[in-house]
DNA sequence: TATGAATGAGCATTCATTCAT
DNA sequence: AATGAATGAATGCTCATTCAT
C-alpha cells in the first residue's frame, strides 16, 4: 500500500473513531488496530495524536468547503444566505463529534490562528461576508453594519442551534426549519414595522397638509384610523 | 476557621486557579496548597474535583444573576435587551476561563440538564425571553417568531463574540459596542427599508395625486399596474 | 449518658453498620454520625477501628455462647450434636456479615490466638469436643479418633455450608436440614451398613435354627420384633 | 522477550509476591519492579490488579488440577477418596497465601460464579462427587445422601484443617495423617459399631445359650475371643 | 469531656510517545 | 519499512487517626 493510501486509511479510520466515541476518547492505538497497522506507523505519518486529529478536522472541513460551493451571485440575497447557513447546519448534523472537536478543542487552542482549520474557517466566514457585502452593494443591506458582528451573529446562531442538537435537546432538529429561521431573523430582525418609516410618512403627511392648506386654506390632519 | 469560611476559601482559590490556568489544568492538590490546607480537606467539602468545579461555576453564575437584575419593565424594549446582553458580555469578559468551562465542559455533559448551572442558565435565558414576550405584547415584535430560535440567536451572538475575545482576536473588544451591535441587529435585522411600508406610501401618493390633479387637472400617480 | 451506655450505643451502631454494608465498608465516621456523637468519642472508647470491630465480634460471639447453652448431657448423643451444630448455623444465618468478618479477617490475623474471639471460639469448640468425649465414654464413639480432626470436620462442614449461604448459592438454605445432614454424616459416615455383620448374623441364625430343629424337630425363625 | 514470556514472568513474580506478603499487600508497582519492567507493562497484559490476581489464582488452580489427575477407577473407594483429599491438602500446603486469596477474596466476590476459578473449583469438586457416585453404584455408599452436603463436608474438613495450618496452629501438620483421618471419618463416621447389630447378637447369644443349656444342662457364656 | 476539622501517605490506573528489533 | 513492546509521569481519591479548641 502506498504512502498516500496509508495516510488516507488512517485518516478515514480516525474520523470513524472520533465519530463513534467522541474526540475525548480517541486513542491512537485504536486507530492503528482498526487500520490493520501498527501504532508506530501512525506516528510515522503523523507527528502526534493532536496532529492526526487536526488533519481529520482539516479534511472534513475541506470536504465541506468543496461540497458547499459559493452561492450563485445571481440568486436573491435571501436564498444565498439561506444556502450558506443550510450547508453549515447540514455539515454539523452529519459530523457532530468533529464539530465538537473543532468548536471545543481547536478553537480554544492558543495556536488556533496558525492552524489550517482557522484558515478554512475564515474561508467559510468570508463566503458569508461576501454575501453580506453583495447585499450592501445592491442596496439591500444597511451599510453601517459592523461586518464582524454580522458574521458573529450568523455563526453564533448556527452554533447555538448546534449545541442544542449535540446535547440532544432538540430531537426534532430540522436543518431546513432552523436555517430558514436564522436567515429570516438575520435579514429582517424581530421588530414589527419600523419607526423610521412612520417618521417619513409623517413628514410626507406634513408636506401634503401644507399643499392642501395652500389649496383650500384648510389644514388637513392625518387620515383618521 | 469555620466550615463555611473554609468552603469559601476553597471556592475562591479554585476560581483563581481556573482563571489563571484554565479548567483543563486545574488540580485539586494545588487548590489545597494555595488555600494552605491539605488535599483531604478539599475532598471533605467537595465530593470530587468535578463537583468543586461545578460549584465554582455555580457560584459565579449566581453572582452574575444577582448583579444583573431584571431590566425594568418600563424601559424601552431596546434598552431592556441592551441591558441583558451587556450584562452577559460583561460577566464573560470578567471570567473568561469560567465561561469556557461552562460552555465546553458542563454544557457537553450528558447530565447537564440536571446541573444547577443548567437551571441558572435557564433563569437567565428566561429573562431574555421575557423581554421578547413583552415586546410582542406591546406590538413591537412580530408574533410569528420561533422563541427558541430568537433565544439561540441572541446567545449565539453573545457567545460567538465571546469566543473571539477569549482567543484574543479582538483585543479592542468593547462590551458597549458589541452589546449595542447585537441589540440593534436582533431588533432591526440587517436589511434596508421594508416593502410593506409601500402600502402606506401608496395611500399618501394617492392623496398627493388627487391634490395635484385638483391643482393642474392632470392625474399624477404611479404607473398603473 | 454514662460511659457504659455510650459504649453500648457505639457497639450496637457498629454492628448494624457491619450488618448493612459488610465489614470492608465499615467506617468509624459513620458509626459516630449514626450514634449521634463525634468521631473523637469513638476513638476515646476504642483505640482503633480494628479494636472496635473486634469488640463487636466479641460481643456477638458472647451472645451466641449465652444463647446456645451446653446441650443437656442426658440427651441422646445425636441430639446433643444436632443442637450444637444447629445453634452454630442459626447464629451464622442471623449475622452473615459478622461471620465473614470473623472467618476472613480475624482468623487470618497473625495475632488471632491472642484475641478474645479465639478464646470464645475455643469455648464453643470445646463444647463440641465435650459431646464427642462423652460419646466416647458412653462407648458410642470410637476411641481412636483424632479429636482435633473431628472438630475440624464438624466446623468445616458448618463453614462450608455457610459460605454457600453467604454467596447466596443456596437460597433455600435450611438450618434444620443442613444441621440434620451434618449430624448424621458425622455420626454414621457415608458407608452403607456393614454387609458382613448382617451376613454373620444370618449365618448364626441359620446355625441356631438347625440346632433347634435338631432338638425339637421344630424350625425356629428369627425372633419376632 | 516474547509476549508470552513476559506474561509468564509477571505471573510468576506476582505469585511470589502474593506468597511472600499476602494478597492484601500485593502492589502492581512491586510486581513491575521485581519483574524488571515498568508498571505500564503490567497493565498492558492485565487490565487491572484484580485481573492479574485472578489469573495467578487460575494458573495455580490449573497446575493443581493437572498435577492431581483423576483417581484410577479401579482403586478401592477409600484409596480414591484419600488420593483426592491428599492432593488438595498438598496443594494448599504449598501455596497458603493463594489459598487464602481464593477462599477469602474470590469466593466472596458477588461475581464468583462467572470466574474461571469457580469453574475450576467445580471441576475439582466434581472429581470428588464422582468418587462418591461410584461408591453408591458399587453399593458401598448410602444412596440417600445429600450429595451437596457430602461435598461440603469433605471440603469443609479440608479447608478447616487448612486454616489451622495457615494460622500456624498445627506446626506438625501432616498431609498424610490429615488426609487419612478425613477419609476414614467421611467413610465410616465416628460411631462405634452399630448398636443394633450388637443387640441382635446379644439376643442370638441368649437364644444359643438357652439351647445349649437345654442340650447339656450347662450355661454357656459369651464366646471366648 | 467532647468536638470535628485537619492530616497526608498511599495506590490503581492511563496513554501518548519512543525505539530496539 | 514496520512492528509493538516498553515507558513512567501524572493524578484523583480514601480514610484511619490526631489534636487544637
UniProtKB/TrEMBL annotation, chains A, B, C, D:
| DNA-binding region location | 27-46
Question: Taxonomically, which superkingdom?
Answer: Bacteria
Q: Which SUPFAM superfamilies match?
A: Homeodomain-like (SSF46689), Tetracyclin repressor-like, C-terminal domain (SSF48498)
Is Transcription regulation one of the keywords UniProt gives this record? yes
- One Gene Ontology term of the molecular function aspect: DNA-binding transcription factor activity
**Keyword check for Transcription:** yes
| InterPro entries linked | Homeodomain-like_sf, HTH-type_TetR-like_transc_reg, HTH_TetR, KstR2_TetR_C, Tet_transcr_reg_TetR-rel_C_sf
A Pfam family matched in the record? TetR_C_24
In this chain the HTH tetR-type domain maps to 4-64
Enumerate the UniProt keywords alphabetically. DNA-binding, Transcription, Transcription regulation
Can you say what this protein is called?
Answer: Transcriptional regulator, TetR family
